[in-house]
Every structure is written in C-alpha cells, then in structure tokens.
Amino acid sequence: MGTRMPMIIIMDNNTALLRLMTWLSPAFPVGAFSYSHGIERAVHDGVIGDKVSLQLWLEDLLSHGSLWNDAVLFAETWRNTTHGIDCLDTSELAQAMAGSKERHMETMLQGSAFLQAIGHWGHANSKSIKEMAYPVAVAMVAAQNGIACQPALSAFLHAMLSNLIQGAVRLVPLGQSHGVSLMAAVEKDILDVAERAMSSSLDDLGSAAIISDIMAMQHETQYSRVFRS
C-alpha cells in the first residue's frame, strides 16, 4: 500500500513554465553533461558517425528504448503523486530496468542531485527522500507543483535529448548548427511520445533498442573516455 504524499501546490502557467525551464536547464546541477547514455561507445565503434545516424539512434531511444521507458515511468509517477500515492515502488522499478551499471548510476545520481537541488523551492520535494530515479524525481516534483503532465513530460524528454545531442556534437564531432537542426527534427517525436505515454500504463514498459544497451555495457570497460556513461 502507498503512503500519502504532500499537498499539491497549484500555480499559474507562467510560474510553471519558469520552473520547468529552470529545473530542466543544462545549468541545473544534476550533472547531466557528464553522461552520454552509451553514445560515446557508439561513436567509438562507428555506429554513430554523422547527423543521420545520430538522429536515427535518438528516434529509436525515444520511441522504442530507454527514453520511452522513462516517459512511461514519468507518467505513472505523475498520476500516482496527484492521487497521493508515493512513488518509491516506481523508482525501484526504474532501477531494475536500468540495463547496465552505468545506466543505473546515470538515472540514480541525477535523480538524487535533482532532489537535493530542488530544495531551494522548499515546498517542492519530500525531504525524507534522498535517492530516486531521475524521471521519477522530476515527475513527482512537477506533480507536487501542479504542473500538468504533458508539458512536464515533453520538457523532460526535450532536456534529455538536448543533452545527448550536445554530447554527440563533441564526440562525432558535429557542428552546432547540426545540433540545432536535430532538435528541430525530433520536436514532433517528443510531442508524439509524450502524448502516447500519457495514456500508457506500466504494462507498456519495454525496450527494443538492444544495440544501445550493449553500447552502454561496453562503455563500462572502455579504456579512454570523456563521459561517465
């Protein structure tokens, strides 16, 4: 049985927008810039070598891989939080679904850092929770602040993809203009996946992005690397 969660804060849309922009900004101290989500190994092995191959990789992650699972977990957490149900079980499920040591580290360290940093909005988090998977932590705080699920989830996915693209710009390498054009190209995919996840349940969890999982595992033993995953 779940326990009751803190009272939901209701705020206007402008404040909600500002908070999402702050919490999911590259400057927010969760250390997102340290992680490539296995892309560093994919570049090393020549699986990703240009803009086209990177876009296909990201689209697969978003629609059929780890980012899809994050979206489902995000939506589940948001719903549970709005109904006063805690999300510790969902966080444990997110941990269990991390396909490698580095994927587990990536989601848990970012989630814990997010909960710590969010303390500057004193009412926004449960201070008794110190460790939580990243999509679960962001969804919980968004729901507690009365931010609607769809914009919160879309912003979360946008931030995740933006971080991966910026890492790939350095690794491939690609020009900044390529990075910007990729963000424009995946915009519709982000919105489609967010909408699909809104009506999902935990039964919809599952990944078919096997090569991405293998790259994440192989990155653990890569001799020379820039990123932590």
Question: Could you characterize what this model shows?
Answer:
Helices cover 62% and strands 0% of the residues. It is mainly alpha-helical and 229 residues long. The protein has a single domain (13-25, 34-219), classed as Orthogonal Bundle (Urease accessory protein UreF). α4 runs parallel beside α7 (134-144) and α8 (149-171) packs antiparallel against α9. The longest helix has 23 residues, at 149-171. The model is unreliable at 1-6 (pLDDT under 50).
Compose a concise summary of this entry.
With 229 residues, the protein is mainly α. The chain has 11 helices and no strands. Required for maturation of urease via the functional incorporation of the urease nickel metallocenter.
Please render the helix and strand layout as text.
Blueprint: H1 13-23, H2 39-44, H3 51-64, H4 66-82, H5 88-97, H6 101-117, H7 134-144, H8 149-171, H9 176-185, H10 187-198, H11 210-219
Helix pairs in contact: 3-4, 4-7, 4-8, 4-10, 6-7, 7-8, 8-9, 8-10
Helix/strand/pairing category: mainly alpha
Strand content: under 5%
Q: What is the arithmetic mean of pLDDT?
A: 91
Query: CATH H-level name... which superfamily?
Result: Urease accessory protein UreF
List low-pLDDT spans: 1-6
Find the CATH topology. Urease accessory protein UreF
Provide the succession of SSEs.
Answer: HHHHHHHHHHH
Structural features:
229 residues; mainly alpha; Urease accessory protein UreF; globular
